Amino acid sequence: MFTSEFEPVYCIEGGTLQLKCTVYSETINVHWFKGDIEIKETENMHIIWADKTHLITFKHAKVSDSGQYWIVAGKVQKQLEVTVQALFKRQLKNITIMEGLEACFECEVEKPYPGVWYKDGKELKSSSNIKIDTIQESVHKLTIFQTTLDHKGKYEIKINDILSGADLDIKEIPDAIKQMSEHDRSIFLEAAKNGTAARYNIRIILVGKQRVGKTCLLRRLMNEGIEGVESTDGINIEVKKCKINLQTKEWIFTKGNESPLSEYPNDQYADCGFWNFAGQKEFYATHQTFLSRNAIYLLVVDVSEDFEMNTFENMIENQYDRIGEYINFWLDNIHCYTVNDTDEFMIPESNLLNPPVIMIGTSMDKVKDREKTKDSFATYINKLLREHPKRKHLRKLCFLSNTKPSKDKNEFQTLRNDIFDRAKEIPKWGDNLPTRWILLEKEIDRFIHIEEFVISYDMAKILASKCSFSLKEVTLELDSFLKYEHDIGNLIFFEDIKSYIILEPKWLVDVFKCFVSPFQFQSQYINMPEWSSLQSTGHLSKILIKKLFSKVQVLNETEHEAFVVEEMNEKKKFALQIMKKKKAFVLQIMEKFDIIVKPIKIEKNEEYYMPCMMEASGFNQILDTFKVRNNKCSRTSWFGLQFNFLPPAFFNHILVTFIKEYSLCIVEGGRLALYRGIGVFDFEDSKCLKLVICLSENSVAMQVWQFKNGEGICYHENRKYLTHIVSFLQQKYRINIPFRCFLKCPDGTHHEIAERIYLNILNDVSKTALTYCHEHKNHTLDELRRYWFKVCIKSLGKGQIVTREQQSGFTDRTCDTCCLCKASKHWSFKLLVPHLTVEFKFLVSGF
Ligand SMILES: Nc1nc2c(ncn2[C@@H]2O[C@H](COP(=O)(O)OP(=O)(O)OP(=O)(O)O)[C@@H](O)[C@H]2O)c(=O)[nH]1
Which pTM value belongs to this model? Predict the structure, then answer.
């Protein structure tokens, strides 16, 4: 029947496939089959014959056209093997990378054809950050440099009408990394090239007054009993950990020797850490160190207490006990972390702010009418917070009893679920990190598990190499890792004092609590005259440091042992050395946190001072010490900053920054003029000018005491220094504490809000130039501001010579280094020659 041979047929996908045979006679009918099914013509496939030749043509062959074909003529059938080879030798592959990295799609084809690239169906062309390449005509490449989240999508290449496609998934760089330096970001990205994984972390911080039931609540949340719970001693942090199953929301607690939590995989379980703060006020000087912007706060309140509104007293003077004051205090503290309403702290479409706060009313067993208490507490909170934006942190009010829970303890399960739901709103939830960074986090967890709360930098290097940190630059990558971990509050690390890394804040608190000790726990210092000297003068003598260190258990364990052994062997000597190093490190850390400070210009500069533990002294007493109230001394007006809320630790930072910049005056007995919330500084060699800086509730004010003719001196540099420090500290601690500048009359009391003149009023020329003052009847505004604000010479017109004679002709505009006068282009000028001496000279030579 057949006169042709039947060789196997081969073709490449997309090409034309032809199957052909010739038969003995034109009258022979030929039928084509694939398997058992007879082939019928389609749009893409034609069957034709001419004379004895029969032909079947697939215009655009598909891989599925491959197979066994049968050609049947009469009773004869022949088999034909057909192979359609896929065009793509290598298809595009899905890519998942970290934003900022380069993404490269690549495919290889069997036959050189041109290709066209598409993203989400739209054709792509080469551009500044997209490169389209073909290598030896058969390898097609698409490279996207410095990817952003917008590059996510489906990418395809069409070659000879055949598509190959893959997805590009881009993971966001954690915010903390974005805010780090470019160097750290590039190290992070380099590490991310070797793979990334998501990590879920929840930190829950319990805060509130002492004895409101924080510890009991924590026990209940951890499914533990509350027997034997005692008020936390002094300043303390109790840290507890558990895991939460991301799918089932089940909480996993391990006790004793059960398998460590680190064995639960990161991508399926969230790490949950509870930090329980002791409620003692003294902690507030240091607690800012331990608060975090990436946490959920449980604000615990004992609702069986009388929570009626009361006057808000000055917490600095330790009269700070009303529930409302605590609630305000903590919400204000938490609200400081909201840098602004539009950034990551704002939860989209909800008008709520992060970090979230759940308020928990305890001791419900003690109240008579539960429903009434709930209602009146909610009303009370409503009145207390009014329209203040800090209420946007509040998510829920819960009421429960720790001592008499419900039978099924369901209220605690509800609270656990709430915590988990809130955790998802926090920006750090599901941060993508380089896999080896997550490995190192686990290594560190292992140390914490065996209660090694502080490790040396060398040890960290060993761990980092174990986790395959880039070998050549292990310290570079390790530093970036540690900075990130510090930033999100997982550990404490400073690049400039990197001998040790504190893995658990508990270690630091254990050290701090010997130094920053609440009054009622100070009986242990009864035999230490140096402690009493610390309280009155702020001087932290070397002997006292030694004595206090000897009380810090975590620092002495090895050292004691070492002393017991008569002949110290090498190992013990080594241990002793380590302890010494650790103590030096502790002092550096306390210095870093501004808890202690070495004032400048003290001989050899070796003595430490600790302003936050000093007893209060009356301001009048200080005035008497300096004999300010006599006619040889004139006082400038007060210049101050009034904050919406000033965290107690923050004033410490301000004062310590001044102590590092200006020399503290030395008063009788050689002591430094440092008092609780007050510092007096010499800022001139003659010591005739003294700058006093004072803290009062939510305000900082300063004044200069002039023991010489101070007429005409303008202290605008000091004023600028104060505002500069505040903005610098705000940036450093990334907290938001808005303030207004004010002036007050020289003899006025700096801490009283009455009669403060705010800068916005100063700014307003239409306001009267006179200001009434109860004590002195009236002052002109100029009298108050000339000490702190220079007249602006920048805006003087050319040829405008200012002379003493012209003084009377000019009106009413002085300048806060251009901030007051910038509103007006043609402003008039009032010149008070005495305080313009310098500028005056400049003008004369200039013209
Ligand atoms: N009746 C009643 N007593 C409670 C409740 N919660 C706690 N207590 C008791 O209050 C006391 C203080 O409880 P803690 O849990 O230690 O309070 P805390 O807030 O951790 O205290 P500090 O550690 O001092 O800050 C304990 O004696 C508890 O038994 C409660 O809901 N009802």
Answer: 0.73
Residue 627 CB contacts under 8 Å (≥ 6 apart), including other chains:
633
CATH 3.30.310.200 fits 616-789, yes or no: yes
Question: Is the pLDDT score of 716 beyond 70?
Answer: yes
- Cβ(158) to ligand 1 under 6 A? no
Q: Establish whether domains 9-85 and 616-789 are of one fold.
A: no
What 3-state class would DSSP assign to 612? helix
Domain definitions of the chain by residue range: 9-85, 89-171, 176-195+432-493, 201-429, 616-789, 790-847
d(CA 28, CA 21): 12
pLDDT digits (tens, 9 = 90+) for 317-337: 344 457 777 888 888 888 887
Ligand 1 contacts CB of residue 401 (under 6 A): yes
- Cα 303 to ligand 1 centre (Å): 12
Is residue 701 scored above 70 in pLDDT?
Answer: yes
Residue entry with tokens 């009377």: 808
Q: Which residues of 34-43 are buried (b: 16+ CB within 10 A; e: fewer)?
A: eeeeebeeee
Could you tell me if the CB of 279 is within 6 A of ligand 1? yes
> In angstroms, rounded to a whole number, what is the distance separating the alpha carbons of residues 50 and 205?
88
Q: Which among 142, 131, 89, 144 is positioned nearest to 112, based on CA atoms?
A: 89
3-class DSSP state for residue 332? helix
> What is the CATH topology of the domain spanning 89-171?
Immunoglobulin-like (2.60.40)
Quick: pLDDT tens for 766-811. 444 556 666 656 666 667 777 887 654 444 443 343 433 233 333 3
Q: Whose CA is closest to 14, among 48, 55, 56, 64?
A: 64
Do 692 and 620 form a contact (C-beta atoms < 8 A)?
no
Minimum CA distance residue for ligand 1 atom 7: 213
Ligand 1 and 333: CB distance under 6 A: no
Cross-strand bridge partners of residue 144: 103, 130
Helix 474-487 / helix 182-192 crossing angle, nearest 10 deg: 110
Helix 323-335 and helix 370-385, axial crossing angle in degrees, nearest 10: 50
**Best of 205, 215, 321 for a ligand 1 pocket test (most atoms within 8 Å of beta carbon):** 215
- pLDDT at position 130: 92
The correct CATH number of 9-85 out of 2.60.40.10, 2.130.10.10, 2.40.30.10, 3.40.50.2300 is 2.60.40.10
Mean pLDDT of 160-179: 87
Question: Residue 614: how many CB atoms within 10 A of its CB?
Answer: 19
Query: In whole angstroms, what separates CA 686 from the centre of its chain?
Result: 45
Pocket mutation for ligand 1, best pick of 206, 214, 216, 304 (most atoms within 8 Å of C-beta): 216
In whole angstroms, what is the distance from residue 113 CA to residue 25 CA? Answer: 41
Q: How confident is the model at residue 109 (pLDDT cuts 50, 70, 90)?
A: very high
Does the beta carbon of 234 sit less than 6 angstroms from any atom of ligand 1?
Answer: no
